[in-house]
Design a protein that fits this description.
about 400 residues, five-stranded mixed beta sheet, five-stranded antiparallel beta sheet, 31 strands
């Protein structure tokens, strides 16, 4: 699973759905007008449990050091995600074990109450795992679910909890190949730009093909673009020129390191949201931007910048037989800041080397990224900036994060 970027643009007025706090008769006028403290829903997956189970924790902690307890959390079978529109008091919980979306609403006692369900089984969907970014919210009454298993987008209403339509994407299907939508989505010009990657069903490799699905949110129409110069381009960042820069993620880079020249070269491509096509004249090998080495990922930074990750094998050596997943999720990936207008990159020594596969989330005042502990034992959230300061830690792997209020 991977990171999500477009949270700021999805924030709606919180007053519409957020429940008011109880105010006692002895409270002062200042107390009545005091803004409630932020609350977050952090969903964590305990992959070491048998069977696998997940927990949705409501917590005020996201920007300060804390260790979360699972006591009192909502327990969900399988690998779960908590998705939704930030600051609206509702989280939609899904799992890889069913096609049902369950809405939970924040109560006045800061707990979650089940308030509705919608089922995608009639559309052929069997599992709702993968990434938080597979769920894209346009408004309180319109959202999309990108399903790689059935190669379609489900259109649904988060308020009425009903399915309202589908967008078939049959052209993305390649025999004997797994279709995977990205965890890195860009919203621009009334479009949702969703990168696409493929990998063979058998063996350890990635397919030499890049793809983008652009959804026009006014018409619910999809435009597909493909490029055959490199593969597993799951990461995206918006440049100052209005173009979307798309790159091979850390797993694709790890495959190249393990498999060698038989795997596609990790690359950077440019996609034009106006023409809805890749720029055929633009191509950069990721390692050429950072002076060599195993390079992957494109993580949005400050406006007009992004981060490329580079594997430091003095910290995380790659031995014979090491699986690319182990390389991508392991520690030792340096941070290099890339200016998208000049394509110049600088090593950020103030940010500690961490796991290559990360997610980005927005808290009240910070952009946070995940660092996964060894053996899928824990997740620590860190500040993107401030020397990568660690904040909250939870058991298991957390692939989703939502500010409830």
């Amino acid at each position: 699973m991977k990171h999500t970027f477009a949270l700021r643009s999805l924030r709606l007025p919180a007053a519409a759905l957020t429940l008011s706090l109880f105010v006692g008769c002895g409270d002062s006028e200042d107390d009545k007008n005091e803004t409630p403290a932020p609350l977050y829903a952090i969903t964590t997956q305990l992959l070491t449990a048998d069977p696998t189970e997940s927990y949705v924790v409501v917590t005020p902690h996201a920007e300060q050091a804390a260790t979360l307890s699972l006591e009192g959390a909502v327990k969900v079978p399988g690998r779960a995600l908590g998705v939704g529109i930030p600051k609206t008091g509702a989280v939609y919980v899904v799992t890889d074990e069913s096609a049902t979306v369950t809405r939970y609403t924040l109560t006045s006692t800061n707990t979650l109450e089940k308030t509705g369900t919608v089922d995608f089984a009639a559309q052929g969907v069997t599992s709702l795992g993968e990434y938080q970014a597979n769920f894209q919210f346009v408004s309180e009454t319109k959202a999309y679910f990108f399903d790689g298993l059935t190669a379609q987008v489900i259109i649904w209403n988060p308020t009425a909890m009903t399915v309202t339509g589908t967008i078939p994407l049959d052209a993305l299907v390649i025999p004997e190949t797994v279709l995977a939508f990205s965890g890195a989505v860009v919203h621009t010009g009334g479009q949702i730009i969703m990168p696409v990657g493929w990998r063979p069903v058998e063996g350890v490799n990635v397919t030499k093909k890049a793809g983008v699905v652009a959804i026009d949110t006014a018409t619910d129409t999809a435009t597909l673009a493909e490029d055959n110069r490199c593969g597993y381009t799951h990461d995206a960042a918006l440049g100052l020129d209005g173009k979307v820069y798309i790159a091979t993620e850390a797993y694709g880079a790890a495959v190249r390191r393990v498999v060698g020249p038989d795997a596609p070269e990790p690359c950077l491509l440019k996609y034009d949201p106006q023409t809805r096509a890749f720029d055929p004249s633009f191509y950069r090998a990721l390692d050429s931007l950072v002076g060599g080495g195993t390079a992957g990922a494109l993580i949005p930074g400050e406006q007009g910048t992004a981060y490329v990750r580079v594997l430091d094998e003095s910290i995380a050596p790659v031995n014979e037989g090491t699986h690319p997943r182990t390389v991508a999720s392991g520690t030792g990936w340096q941070w290099w800041e890339l200016k998208l207008d000049t394509l110049t990159a600088t090593r950020r020594t103030d940010l500690p080397s961490t796991s290559g596969s990360i997610f980005l989330f927005e808290s009240e005042k910070q952009t946070l990224y995940t660092e996964f502990g060894a053996g899928a034992a824990s997740t620590t959230f860190r500040v993107l900036g401030d020397s990568g300061k660690a904040t909250v830690t939870t058991q298991g792997l957390s692939f989703s994060f939502l500010q409830l209020r």
